[in-house]
Design a protein that fits this description.
Blueprint (H helix, E strand, L loop, with lengths): L16 H14 L5 H7 L1 H25 L8 E5 L7 H10 L11 H11 L3 E9 L3 E8 L2 E6 L6 E5 L4 E5 L8 E3 L14 H14 L4 E6 L3 E6 L4 E5 L5 H12 L8 E5 L6 E4 L1
């Protein structure tokens, strides 16, 4: 009796469950198909973030709508300070209230109101708008400061200007004691005069103040400036000599009495030597 042997080929791979799953997965990839569970696992975080953002937007919109409708946050009062001489208090208050009352104070744009007020009230040098407490808006007006009085030989009127050349208004002679400037061009309240005249006027007034010289009036010409001091002395200064040295010379001549005690009527700095005339 012959015994038969079962010969097992150890080189042949055994296809188990794991190998089968791997092969199936590989076949699906080759065919371009993807398992829905794989997709969900991969984009699970993305879906969560999207859902959270949608919910946040909905809640934020509802909260904003709720806050906007709260009566306590609506602007109910506008307080105006600083408006008196060159800016009309009632006009500022009316325009500010028209553009703010009833608005939500949390979302109210103070810069927009400030710009609108500055464009309508040029007599204000600076305007600030601030929120105060739950429903109050404060508007502070910094008015322009008068620098000089303009007048013309053809007009029987006088106008005051500030350091930017803005014409603040008309004044009666002798009511405001500021340096007077002859200005032969058109002058209109609420507009700006020629800009070249303002820097020279400002600089001269500042220099004269340092030397304690009071200027009663001044006239500008193409090449020189003519001023009158408080004792009616006329002074001629070339445009390129408006400086500390010239004002020191003028102050020295006016303050130091001459030997003959004569009154100086004219000081001329337009030439190489200072020319002084006496009455």
């Amino acid at each position: 009796m012959k015994l038969s042997k079962r010969i097992t080929n150890t080189n042949k791979p055994i296809q188990g469950r794991e190998n089968t799953m791997f092969l199936n997965k590989l076949m699906r990839r080759k065919r371009g198909r993807r398992d829905i569970r794989t997709i969900l696992r991969k984009y699970k975080l993305f879906f969560k973030i999207t859902v959270i953002l949608v919910i946040a937007v909905i809640i934020g919109g509802k909260a904003s709508e709720y806050i906007s409708n709260r009566e306590i946050l609506k602007i109910k009062q506008v307080v105006i300070t600083g408006a008196s001489t060159y800016v009309n208090y009632n006009d500022v208050k009316c325009l500010a209230e028209e553009n703010s009352l009833g608005e939500n104070i949390l979302t109210f744009n103070t810069d927009d109101l400030r710009d609108k007020l500055k464009n309508n009230f040029l007599g204000a040098y600076e305007i600030t708008v601030q929120k105060d407490y739950f429903n109050i808006i404060k508007v502070n007006i910094e008015e322009r400061v008068p620098l000089a009085v303009l007048y013309s030989s053809t007009l029987d009127k006088r106008f005051i200007i500030d350091a930017e050349g803005y014409v603040l208004g008309e004044v009666a002679p002798g009511t405001i004691y500021l340096p007077e400037v002859i200005y032969e061009k058109d002058i209109m309240i609420g507009t700006f005069v020629e800009k070249d005249i303002v820097p020279l006027t400002t600089e001269l007034i500042e220099l004269a103040g340092r030397e304690d010289i009071e200027i009663s009036s001044m006239s500008f010409y193409p090449k020189y400036l003519k001023i009158w001091t408080e004792n009616n002395t006329s002074v001629y200064i070339p445009n390129n000599k408006i400086n500390d040295l010239s004002l020191k010379v003028i102050s020295s001549l006016i303050r130091n009495p001459n030997p003959e005690d004569k009154k100086i009527s004219k000081i001329d700095l337009r030439y190489d030597k200072v020319i002084v005339s006496y009455d």
